[in-house]
Amino acid sequence: xxxxxxxxxxIETEHCWTNEEETCKRCIAHGRSCCNNGVxxxxxxxxxxxxxxxxxxxxxxxxxxxxxxxxxxxxxxDGTMIPSMKHxxxxxxxxxxxxxxxxxxxxxxxxxxMLRECEYNVTMCTRVSQAIYLLKKNRGTFDIVMSEVFLPExxxxxxxxxxxxxxxxxxxxMSAMAETSVVMRGVTHGACDFLIKxxxxxxxxxxxxxxxxxxxxxxxxxxxxxxxxxxxxSDGGGTVDSKKRKDKAQAQESxxxxxxxxxxxxxxxxVHWTVQLHQQFVKAVNQLQIDKAVPxxxxxxxxxxxxxxxxxxxxxQKYRLYLRRLSGINSEPRPVASFQAAGNGIAGGSMQxxxxxxxxxxxxxxxxxxxxxxxxxxxxxxxxxxxxxxxxPGIDKATLISLHQYRAYQQKQxxxxxxxxxxxxxxxxxxxxxxxxxxxxxKRSAAAVKTEHVDTTRISTKTQYSFPSFxxxxxxxxxxxxxGKEQEKISLWNDTEDLFLEKFAHEYDLPNLSAAAAAQDFxxxxxxxxxxxxxxxxxxxxxxx
DNA sequence: CAAACAATAT
DNA sequence: AATATTGTTT
Length: 545
Known about the structure:
Blueprint: E1 4-5, E2 11-12, H1 25-29, E3 97-101, H2 105-117, E4 121-125, H3 128-137, E5 144-148, H4 155-166, E6 171-175, H5 180-188, E7 193-196, H6 201-205, H7 208-220, H8 230-233, H9 243-251, H10 255-265, H11 275-288, H12 295-302, H13 309-330, H14 340-344, H15 373-377, H16 380-390, H17 397-422, H18 437-451, H19 476-507, H20 510-525, H21 533-544
Parallel strand pairs: 3-4, 3-5, 5-6, 6-7
Antiparallel strand pairs: 1-2
Helix pairs in contact: 2-17, 2-20, 3-4, 4-21, 11-12, 12-13
This protein binds a DNA duplex through helix 1, helix 9, helix 13 and helix 19.
């Protein structure tokens, strides 16, 4: 069965649980990559009919743009796939207009490059005031906003509010500090995602989906079929809960019953927890305090028509599991570089990342060199913040790693291109519609196995969570495999992080390299006038109306 | 076959 | 209400 996910022009994808090349409908709807970090298979524009023929490899580099009118128009991205590349950039819609905000120019620099690598249209700035100015001046010029959480004066959250509520744009928050409370605050205040620095290319490839999802959600809103009325209960006691499933099974057999089913409510409508709905839910939970939040009370607060207590209970169950896991990972001791002991006097071994954030940062750090061990070891947020204070921006660990990953990506891509030009005939490009699903699936898994151990850029220290999706840990026996995978990932990172950091020191002359590039990139976009704080308040007030 | 998710059972 | 299990979908 071919599943179709439609958004205006129509985006079509095959289904889920594949290895790397596909993203399922559900994953798209939730604006994140697929179960296994998949990428969209095919993406094209135009009406249904025009899409009848799948993309062919002949049309290359169709530049897709997003019109200034605000209407999203994603031109078909070239569907061809170069097998030698693991993360083919072709599948990202080009020209997505991203507003990138982070007060660390080094990070902006690296991140900007990464985003442009995805062929997005990036505008960068280092101050919230600039960002707001840009948003206001060029209304409808941006599709999505990415911002660091910890900007001066709660700027990240202000920006979230203004861009999200005021301008209706999806906002992605970023930070190296991913304390649960921070993530929660971001998400409950409307962030559509929270990316934990260091950020990998793969995490950027799919951010456009947030734009799509936002519009999708606007379209469907929340419509439950209203079959929870008196019919069932007034049936004279004949209808019992346990019968429902049987009835459904029988419905396919008897025509008469089928008719009834059709009329009364086509398949027992399921609640779709949209972003909005979920946010209402979270809001209610927060209001009650998490430990006092019970389905009934939540339901009362939410005031959503048609929503049942069972619906809420089910969601709450998932939500709790999600939170448990989130806090579990965040409190996990994190490995740090092996040379830390030399810098800060803490005796060898490993230490835990400090979770406290700004206030715990020591003042004397500003005297140390940018690449000093302590600057690296202090945790991304800490380093960034201390440099902010001293006036001269430094490179935090997260930025370093981002840069490294970006470099690695570039190298790999270069290698891939080379290989491609060398052996053109040997390329394994499948005819678009040629092979059967079965065959293609088999091929995919074979490829995945082959490359699995090579790709260092994919190593991630944390799992990315995006709402409203929770991993399904219900059903104990079914989840074992997944947890194993998670563990595998973490230990893989543990083994490699030291190597990464040592590589940084040796291979890259970071301060010089980035400073020059940052300065250059900066001049082009940083010209917006500085805007005083009251202007922000003004805008805030405006957006509240 | 896996994974996500919501309904349903206990 | 909390948790476990099942059904359905992708």
